[in-house]
Write a structure and sequence with these properties.
Layout lengths: L5 E5 L9 E4 L10 E2 L2 E2 L3 E3 L35 H4 L8 E6 L14 E7 L4 E8 L8 E9 L15 E2 L10 E3 L9 E8 L17 E9 L3 E4 L2 E2 L19 E11 L2 H7 L6 H10 L9 E4 L7 E12 L5 E9 L12 E3 L9 E3 L4 E14 L6 E13 L6 E3 L11 E13 L3 E2 H4 L6 E4 L2 E7 L7 E6 L15 E11 L6 E7 L2 E3 L1
Parallel strand pairs: 5-20, 10-31, 22-32
Antiparallel strand pairs: 1-2, 3-4, 6-7, 7-8, 8-12, 9-11, 9-13, 13-19, 14-15, 14-18, 16-18, 17-18, 17-31, 21-24, 22-23, 23-29, 25-28, 25-30, 26-29, 27-28, 30-31
Length: 516
């Protein structure tokens, strides 16, 4: 790391990935490769190596450079052990990108290399980034993904950085905060993990690289303090930002989002002094087949430990300012399954099926039937007699309420595919303004998710609808325009590998549309 202005330049030699010139003054992302020090156009295959068996990354011995152990062999304590130990092929991991090769020269501060694994059963894309020793010790790393290109849009990032998903709005990019230092001596492994939603249009010719692709960015930074729910913590993992902006350090983010990755110990720390440990209990229940207490998560899928990717709404505060920052990676990547992923200029992904297990491409439709009732009531503030109105509501799913699209490369009957089991759709009604004593508390009871409470109905139908009453009058201060309280549709299911591997439980919650 020689300067902030010219922080990194990543070059490919033979099979090395791409050369990116990163300048703070001017954004000029390039994709180049070199053979015998001359620029070469054309596809570049990722150097294939058996990461599960190897103890070190492929590299070129020179100048006394020591071998670089793989993250799970490095003895690092900076990465959660459950995350580090989760890389087995039997659990669904595939090699996608790789910039290491027998031509790679290590420990040059001008270069940052990485390789990437993808889990086909969980839809998780993970980057392992090697940052050589830096002259500047840092406290945090800001990182994220974006879809780039003129008019580019895709739902593939929608499962990141939001607890409740609007299928009609494609998330163009997002950023996360990783609370991990870059070492000033010896270098650092950084691990970044993202959820991918299935987008079958990636294979269309109109979405050819380099006009369309995935942008992976990361930068080091120094932040003076991080607080979640008023408690200083090191567990913050994800903070969403507006599509056009970056993270505003020094501001108060209320009702933000944090994503926990790796093992359950992150969530145990987040539960803090709360002896009931609601999130920890929710995860343990999900392992037993009971989805309750959260809206967005990927759980399980490993034979060797507890794997977790869980997104929660919470209060997040970043104190102080960004002391300094600089670029680690700023890469444009060809997507697996993209029209010219194996023929276009630049690095070609080794795994070449479209990413993501599933997606919901439209808002689930819920049917609402309301009966308004007006009664005489005393104003508690003035004692006068007036009228209040409330509604008896019946809500149920349209027969095709949740239009799920499965990725046929994963959900199939082959030995390498997987089967969907225990598919459930829950109607969640925000309970703050609901009178549960009128029609009961729903088939799933009352469920607490963080500071919010929901009445849960499992697969409500027209013959067995969700029933509840709520106030709509001005006096009560509750209700709005005669509509029910906030309603969400939660989808949960198990992905069970056909080869007998460990199951994964996927949970996603969507904003619905309302019909009559």
């Amino acid at each position: 790391m020689r300067s902030v202005s010219f922080y990194c330049q990543l070059m490919f030699v033979l099979a090395v990935f791409s050369c990116i010139s990163c300048k703070k003054e001017k954004s000029n992302i390039q994709i180049i490769s070199t053979v015998n020090d001359k620029a070469k156009a054309g596809p570049i295959s990722a150097y294939d190596f058996d990461w599960e068996v190897a103890t070190h990354v492929p590299y070129k011995p020179s100048g006394g450079t020591n071998p670089l152990p793989l993250p799970w062999n490095s003895g690092t304590t900076a990465i959660d052990p459950n995350l580090v130990g989760d890389y087995k092929k039997a659990d669904g991991w595939k090699l996608v990108y790789n910039t290491f090769s027998p031509a790679t020269v290590l420990n040059d501060a001008n270069y940052t290399y990485f390789f990437s694994l993808y889990n086909v059963y969980r839809g998780l894309l993970r980057f392992y980034v090697w940052q050589p020793a830096s002259a500047i010790a840092t406290s945090h790393v800001v990182h994220g993904l974006g879809v780039y290109g003129s008019g580019a849009t895709s739902p593939m990032l929608n499962f990141n950085a939001q607890e409740k998903i609007d299928p009609t709005h494609n998330l163009p990019k997002f950023q996360q905060v990783l609370n991990q230092q870059i070492s000033s001596a010896g270098g650092t492994w950084l691990v970044f993990q993202y959820e991918m939603a299935y987008d079958p249009t990636i294979s269309q010719q109109a979405k050819s690289f380099p006009g369309y692709g995935l942008q992976f960015t990361s930068q080091w930074s120094n932040i003076t303090d991080v607080n979640i729910n008023g408690t200083q913590t090191g567990t913050v993992k994800s903070i969403p930002v507006t599509p056009s902006g970056g993270i505003n350090f020094g501001s108060l983010l209320i009702n933000g989002v944090t994503t926990f990755t790796g093992g359950i110990n992150f969530v145990e720390a987040f539960d803090g002094t709360n002896t009931s440990r609601p999130y920890t209990n929710s995860i343990n229940n999900a392992a037993s087949g009971i989805v309750k207490g959260f809206l967005n998560a990927i759980l399980g899928g490993t034979n060797g430990g507890t794997s977790l990717n869980m997104t929660l709404n919470t209060d997040i505060k970043l104190n102080g300012t960004m002391v300094n920052n600089g670029t680690i990676q700023d890469l444009k990547l060809k997507l697996p399954g993209q029209y010219n992923s194996q023929s276009g200029d630049g690095a070609s992904p080794k795994y070449n099926q479209i990413l993501g297990v599933f997606n919901v491409n439209s808002k689930p439709t819920v049917r609402v039937n309301q009966n308004f009732v007006t009664i005489d009531a005393e104003d508690p503030r003035g004692g006068s007699i007036g009228q209040e109105t409330y509604s008896d509501a019946k809500v149920w799913f349209d027969p095709d309420a949740v239009n799920i699209t499965w990725n046929p490369a994963i959900i199939n009957s082959t030995a390498t595919g997987a089967t969907i089991k225990n598919l459930n759709t829950d109607l969640l009604v925000h309970s703050d303004q609901v009178y549960t004593n009128v029609f009961g508390i729903g088939t799933g009871g009352v469920e607490a998710v963080g500071n919010e409470r929901y009445i849960v109905y499992r697969n409500p139908s027209e013959n067995n609808p969700a029933k509840f009453s709520y106030w709509v009058s001005v006096i009560s201060g509750l209700g709005k325009d005669g509509y029910p309280p906030p309603i969400y549709v939660r989808v949960s299911f198990d992905v069970v590998p056909n080869n007998g591997g460990a199951k994964t439980t996927l949970v996603k919650t969507f904003l619905p549309s309302r019909g009559l």
